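Schema walk-through. Below, the input block comes first and the output block second. Nothing else is stored per chain. Lengths vary across the set, and this one has 265 residues.
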Amino acid sequence: MSQEKPIPNLCRKVILEGTRMTHKTEIAFALNEHPRFVGPRKYRYHSPIISAEWGGLQNRAWGQSLINFDKVHERRALETFDLWLRLIEQLPHLSWIVDRFHHSTMMYQKLYHLRTYHFDRIEARLAGLGFRLVLCYREPSTFAKARMERLKISGNPSQYDNLEMFSREQNELFHLFERTTLPKLIVDTSDDDVVRMTEEVVNWFQLHSAENSQRAGHLSREPDVVRAAPQLPPRLRRKFCNRQQLCIGLGLRKTGRSVTVKLNM
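--- output ---
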């Protein structure tokens, strides 16, 4: 009789949030091939990677997406969030990797369309599915270097002209990160070391799995390998210790009408 252990069905689910140039997509692809995240594989395969940034609401390059939609496309965008969640609820026994989702939408709509969306029910459904949130953070002083690298490959370089915009978006995403009800981790991407970032995420998930199964004795905790808790690195704790600092640089326009939208999903 074969003594091989059964291949574990990890079914891990993660949302990677962050402004541009914070390595979200690189981490997503790395997680999709990491044996401790999606399980060991003897040949190359993939788990679903989806993104709210896909510009499928318009028939043009860089068209409107679930993040930057205007009022004309609002209904279809919000229906698509519900469709994604229904699909995942129908197929819960897979690993799902999401490269930007509802936090990016709330951030963009607040900063650029002066509209406030409440996605509490979306978060409740995500929590019920076991999703965890990772905020990819970049030290603002490193955006210029990151832009130089991105311009080498970008098909739309003008979107990287305003570096201050990325700092504003990052501050607002941190506000949302603080308030989320999902289990959360912040990863410093300033050194561009995707391998290290990916390992931090995988170790965090492994710690969570170990804590949940300690009673059954299935996994042992690895305090020297995994992080003790999802919290800010010391340098970032100092930066964000004063909540008033989070508001600096948001630069919301005082003109125009701010709109609050409550959703039933």
